[in-house]
Predict the structure.
Amino acid sequence: MARGATVGSGSVRQQRSERGCPGRDLFLSVPLKNLTGKMSTNENANTPSARLNRFKNKGKDSTEMRRRRIEVNVELRKAKKDDQMLKRRNVSTLPDDATSPLQENRGNQVLAHWSVEEIVKGVNSNNMELQLQATQAARKLLSREKQPPIDNIIRAGLIPKFVSFLGRADCSPIQFESAWALTNIASGTSEQTKAVVDGGAIPAFISLLASPHTHISEQAVWALGNIAGDGSAYRDLVIKYGAIEPLLSLLAVPDLSSLASGYLRNVTWTLSNLCRNKNPAPPIEAIQQILPTLVRLLHHDDPEVLADTCWAVSYLTDGSNDRIEVVVKTGLVPQLVRLLGCSELPIMTPSLRAIGNIVTGTDEQTQIVIDSGALAVFPSLLSHHKNNIQKEAAWTMSNITAGRQDQIQRVVDHGLVPYLIGILRKGDFKSQKEAVWAVTNYTSGGTIDQIVYLVQAGVLEPLLNLLSTKDSKTVLVILDAVSNIFLAAEKINETEKLCLMIEECGGLDRIEALQSHENEQVYRASSTIIEKYFSAEEEEDQNVVPDSTADSYTFQIQDSTPNSFNF
């Protein structure tokens, strides 16, 4: 397809945000990240200078080329492992018998149920065996499935004692029990995690990473993961205390498969928490330190390791173009694309998020994703039975169609336009909104040929049907697409044909109805289209005579037009 002049407003790139960020985008009544998007629907949007500025790559900086939004990520990370949990409690019952070397000198079995008062008395005694039993009793209370008495343990002043026990290299069982107890306290609320940090636990746990006892080292890994998972401040404190190097050294083996799977999973999860959270993002030096290990983990075969590694990559790509570049230049995109094509949802979900984040970057970064074969996976993603996968896939497409014309052409060549139209027709509303953005960005930057193809593929009816939505932002984005398509039609003298097509599918009635819309921007945009293209009958252009057929109208284009188009 020949390249031609772009028409319409400039494309807008959008980027996801970190979970739990306050604020909502007008556009999304949904979840996770936002900064503002510049659309051509503001009051002065139709001035020549404004329209010129909306052309992609015409003097626009990276921020203008993105559509960012705040999204609260309750959707993609809700329940099990695919939600990539921030904190985890150890409620295993095995270590009493199997993992923990507490079998020696067990003449006095630990009491079945200790009160907090009894635990305090035991922990503060001068008898090591009693201290051990009391610490284990505390750990058991904190490992209860329901309502562990975390606050009672904190109020009893036990944390400083437990932290001191972490340094008892002469008694590994008490190191393990206190590490486990502190891990479960740190798995609670931010206030509870703060109590552990304030007790001096971070440097003590980092020292335990080098323990000769694997189960103790692993418990320290777990505890640091819970602390780092609390948020940016404690994540950076864990990094500042020097956790990354000893953590990475735990994986410095020739073959990762030689490590116990549970151990490897815990280390991977903790590394992912060190990559997580924004405002601020992790220090760039720390990211550069961790990335080579993440690249290695991406080639492992354990599903949980792969899922958490993909989440880590998704966090690291959720930022500015220079941060995306740090990740992309490691060469991990092809492997990420391979994982995108796997059938396992817990791996597919974060790999799609990471790919989606990368294409919010520069055209060159987007091209690496395209060159890695990602578009071949999108037919299955855009028609996935899970609505959230469809939505994320359509969001990703909207940032690819915000790219160069040759990148839009790759979307066409991979047969993805019909899938986007399919979502417009019958996807869930969140997916439909993303598909609307994909189509509008396509019409903003596409060539005449590409826009003609879009219309021929049947985009008008499902797109215009969505004008009945109550979401004003989505309506404005659709009207922007309609305006862009009209601009293309004007260039090839097909305006009348386009008017007839819009009228035939009920689109004119929908646009007219918007003239009484409560939102002033919607009212202005719809009125502009009506006044410009559907006003009183004008004298027919003798060069453009529509011949009505059963299915459509065929146009004879005036001779001066080099090519003929048929919408």
